[in-house]
Write a structure and sequence with these properties.
heterodimer; A: mainly alpha; MetI-like fold; 15 helices; about 0% strand; globular; B: alpha/beta; CBS domain Like; six-stranded mixed β-sheet; 18 helices; binds adenosine-5'-triphosphate; binds magnesium ion
Chain lengths: ~300, ~375
């Protein structure tokens, strides 16, 4: 009888085999974490220190100083008052509603994640733009990274590093890094061939050509990538709070489990405000960088 | 070739740039079809039967120091391909290029970069400026690449910006400039590096006729002073005649005639070239030096400058159409004479024939 079953029901491996398979994978990974976990954790200590220092700096700074700095950044990026007013008003609202501390933690987290994504992602994007073979290898990985449900990243990271800031940071960076890589690659590939030919004709070295022409001309695209990366990192805030990352995510999580509607919405709105601020500031910075395209004074 | 030209520190035959038997075939396996090309397979045949494009076909050409050497030809004849070989933006399939006695094709990458930085600079048809640099930054770019500091580069760039008439525009970005102004930037950028070879690929073709004439004037004025060796690509005969000392005509990747301007105009090698030159105003293009004879006996009346066009020379015959006039060559005195019959013969339509054109090109 068992033989005819496969037409109706999918002939899956039986439970025992599957369990054995999963266990084998888990055991192998566990063995890996036991052997290298400590070493990897040590490797991340400087990052943890930096992260803690940065968070403390943001928490320790007086609120008006933080607002002044962010407003200053908004001004340099846009040279307009709208954005500055938006920044000040948003932070005031956040402060008044008692979410200042969590917001600072989240901002610190997002800033560090973005920094890491830039430092790691831009070189990968540059290498990708120079080799079609590397590109065809990296693109599928990026596709998987972007489509994999973000919770899944938490598991191996937690097994390896436990709960806390660093695993949270890693999970966020893995989830958020693809846009920087993709758009760096794209931006460099889109640089005008004739401009590059002229650069070569003047005897530029590969280094001069990369940093003097390709990267500057790709910057608007790279900025768009950074912008998307920040947005994705913000989207990970709640997920990351599940493994102990403090910030706006934790109250949201508590609100979900305890049905605190107002608290959930307020903290959610704070994330939205942060997202809008980060988005507008990076975008107007990107626009200012390509002023030369439109300038006609 | 005269002894004077053969001297100097240049290549064995006195050429600043000597191109020998240069082939370029585009496609998957150029080397495999090279023998066919050497045996004379045509461009269309090569494409249809073997899927390769014949870019350059056995080019042999000498560019003399201080000359403006024009390369002319219709679209697709291989002009851009040829000029890009001179600084190796394109690698040849076979052949040799020697500049000042150095084999350009043998240069290792660092030497090639040094060659491009210090010996040959280039001006492009569509300007190819750096959009993210100001005029000052663009003109100074070659100097920065050479390793000058920013202040040094800017100081020298300013001189060239003034020379091409762009003073006051130093801080503009290319997007804010008209085509003519952008190409002035392109020219200044190439001149600033102080290379003695200037490669110009249809540098003025994208400009309006009036602005083009302007730019030709700028170039001629600068060239009169600097005496660079210029390879100038164009598909515009008037431009070629106006600024060229010698002209090479390209068709399907091969040089079909090379010679001085008057040689080409007076003795076109075949119907293709005759067709090119048939509509030009010969009286304005040809100069007295091209038709004068060395005989000074019997010449009388006002002295005609050798540089005068035939049209200008006609005015010297108003009073006495039958006589001969002495011809004065700049810096050398009266060197010959010219009469009305020679002038009229030269102004006539070309006598087409393969006959003496190539022969005279060799002298
Ligand atoms: N990278 C390439 N691959 C294949 N064929 C090419 C390539 N570059 C040029 N060719 C071919 O070589 C021939 C010469 O091209 P080239 O660009 O040198 O012509 P050109 O005389 O400069 O024409 P134009 O006046 O249009 O600029 C053309 O038939 C062109 O199609
Ligand atoms: Mg061309």
């Amino acid at each position: 009888m068992a033989e005819s079953n496969w037409l109706i029901e999918f002939p899956a491996l039986d439970d025992a085999t599957l369990r054995a398979f999963n266990r084998a994978v888990d055991d192998a990974y566990l063995a890996f974490t036991r052997t290298y976990g400590a070493a990897i954790e040590d490797a991340f200590t400087p990052l943890l220190r930096f992260m803690v220092w940065f968070e403390q700096a943001m928490l320790g700074a007086p609120w008006w100083l933080v607002i002044a700095i962010v407003a200053g950044l908004a001004w340099t990026a846009s040279r307009g008052w709208t954005l500055v007013v938006l920044v000040v008003a948003s932070f005031m609202a956040i402060g008044v509603m008692g979410m200042w501390e969590d917001t600072m933690r989240t901002m610190a987290m997002i800033s560090v994640c973005t920094l890491i994504a830039i430092v790691v992602g831009i070189p990968i994007g540059i290498l990708m733009s120079r080799s079609d073979r590397l590109k065809s290898g990296v693109v599928p990985v990026l596709d998987v990274m972007q489509t994999m449900p973000s919770f899944v990243y938490l598991i191996p990271v937690v097994m390896l590093l436990g709960l806390g800031k660093v695993p949270g940071l890693l999970a966020v960076v893995i989830y958020a890094i693809p846009p920087v890589i993709r758009l760096t690659d794209l931006g460099i590939r889109l640089v005008d061939k004739e401009v590059l030919e002229a650069t070569d004709a003047f005897g530029a070295s590969p280094w001069q050509r990369l940093w003097g022409v390709q990267v500057p001309l790709a910057l608007p695209n790279i900025m768009a990538g950074i912008n998307q990366t920040i947005m994705m990192a913000l989207a990970m805030v709640v997920v990351a709070s599940m493994i102990g990352v403090k910030g706006l995510g934790q109250p949201v999580l508590r609100a979900v489990t305890n049905q605190y509607f107002a608290m959930g919405v307020l903290n959610g709105l704070a994330v939205v405000l942060l997202a809008i601020i980060f988005d507008r500031v990076t975008q107007s910075y990107g626009r200012r960088m390509q002023r030369y395209r439109h300038e006609s004074r | 070739m005269s002894p004077a030209e053969a001297g100097g520190a240049n290549g064995a035959n006195g050429a600043k740039i000597a191109i020998r038997d240069l082939y370029k075939i585009f496609g998957r396996a150029p080397a495999s079809v090279l023998p066919l090309v050497r045996d004379g397979i045509g461009k269309t045949e090569l494409l249809e039967q073997h899927g390769h494009v014949l870019g350059l076909d056995a080019i042999t050409m000498n560019v003399r120091e201080g000359d403006v050497h024009v390369v002319m030809g219709l679209s697709g004849s291989g002009k851009s391909t040829l000029i890009r070989h001179l600084n190796r933006l394109i690698e040849p399939t076979a052949g040799s290029i020697v500049v000042d006695g150095d084999d350009v094709l043998a240069l290792a990458p660092p030497d090639l970069r040094a060659f491009r930085r210090h010996r040959a600079s280039m001006v492009f048809q569509r300007f190819a400026l750096h959009p993210h640099r100001t005029v000052l930054g663009n003109v100074g770019y070659g100097l920065r690449v050479q390793g000058l500091t920013r202040p040094q580069a800017e100081e020298r760039a300013r001189v060239w910006i003034d020379r091409v008439g762009l003073g006051g525009f130093e801080d503009r970005y290319p997007a804010a400039l008209s085509g003519g102004m952008q190409q002035r930037v392109g020219l200044a950028r190439a001149l600033a590096t102080d290379c003695d070879i200037l490669l110009m690929d249809e540098a003025f073709s994208a400009l309006d006729p009036l602005i083009r004439t302007d730019m030709q004037d700028v170039l001629l004025r600068i060239q009169g002073e600097l005496k660079k060796t210029i390879v100038f690509i164009t598909h515009d005969l008037d431009e070629a005649l106006r600024i060229g000392d010698r002209i090479a005509i390209l068709r399907d990747g091969a040089v079909i005639q090379e010679g001085t301007t008057p040689e080409i105009v007076m003795h076109p090698a075949d119907a293709y070239i005759a067709d090119f030159v048939k509509d030009i105003n010969r009286a304005r293009v040809l100069r007295v030096k091209a038709v004068m004879s060395a005989e000074t006996n019997g010449a009388c009346g006002p002295v005609v400058p050798a540089q005068a066009t035939l049209e200008e020379a006609l005015t010297f015959f108003h009073s006495d159409p039958s006589g001969r006039r002495p011809v004065h060559v700049e810096e050398r005195g009266v060197m010959g004479s010219v009469g009305l019959p020679e002038i009229l013969r030269a102004v006539e339509r070309p006598n087409v024939g393969p006959s003496d054109a190539r022969a005279s090109a060799m002298t």
